[in-house]
Amino acid sequence: MAHSNFDAAELAKFQQLAERWWDPQSEFRPLHEINPLRLQWIDEAVSLAGKRVLDVGCGGGILAESMARRGADVLGIDLADKLLQVATLHARKTGASVAYRHVSAEELAAEQPGSYDVVTCMEMLEHVPDPRQVIEACARLVKPGGWVFFSTINRTPFAWLIAVFGAERVLRLLPVGTHDWRKFIRPHELTAHAHGAGLVLQDARGLGYNPLARRFRLHRALRVGYLLAMKKNKKEGG
């Protein structure tokens, strides 16, 4: 592999669960439930129809397919080949117009800089050794004036209590070991890396979960999961 910014154990963990990716009652139920929220938030910001979109760390294609159904021209990329196979087969079955590639964001940024209107990188940064490399690659891939959307988990004791202990060990929303609290990223860290790469924060939302109603929602508190919308600086005179 030419790419190096990946964790083999993390990839193997998701590869083993690939066949259950599209089962809304499986370990990936939270992804299915939060997807309408993040999709609507993205679409309201950029109006996806007609946009060229890149989904970095697309997994089995839940977000990629939903953006394609909103009229976007979508490419999903991931380093987990089994997940890409699942994504491709599901797109064929549903007729979704979305393409997939086994390539890293860093490699694609060297190949196709400034090629996308929108770049999404959701629930992925906390699973790579060096998130800054991915953030910088996303910034290189988007056109000047284009949008980049990130989502990840805050590195706070409360986030460990909710996202690790609560979600994995108590509510069993996720398999035990899905997340490593040490890899979580504080919002100001992500924003600083993004700003250094030419991205400017436009909006921030927190992701909350009501265990009684069993529903996710977006709000303004960033203590646990959070989503950031960023825009790339236009070139001078652009």
Automatic annotation (TrEMBL):
This is Ubiquinone biosynthesis O-methyltransferase. HAMAP family: UbiG. It comes from Acidovorax soli. The lineage of its organism: Bacteria, Pseudomonadati, Pseudomonadota, Betaproteobacteria, Burkholderiales. Signal peptide: none annotated. The keyword Oxidoreductase does not apply. Keywords: Methyltransferase, S-adenosyl-L-methionine, Transferase, Ubiquinone, Ubiquinone biosynthesis. Pathway: Cofactor biosynthesis; ubiquinone biosynthesis. GO terms for biological process: methylation. Belongs to the methyltransferase superfamily. UbiG/COQ3 family.
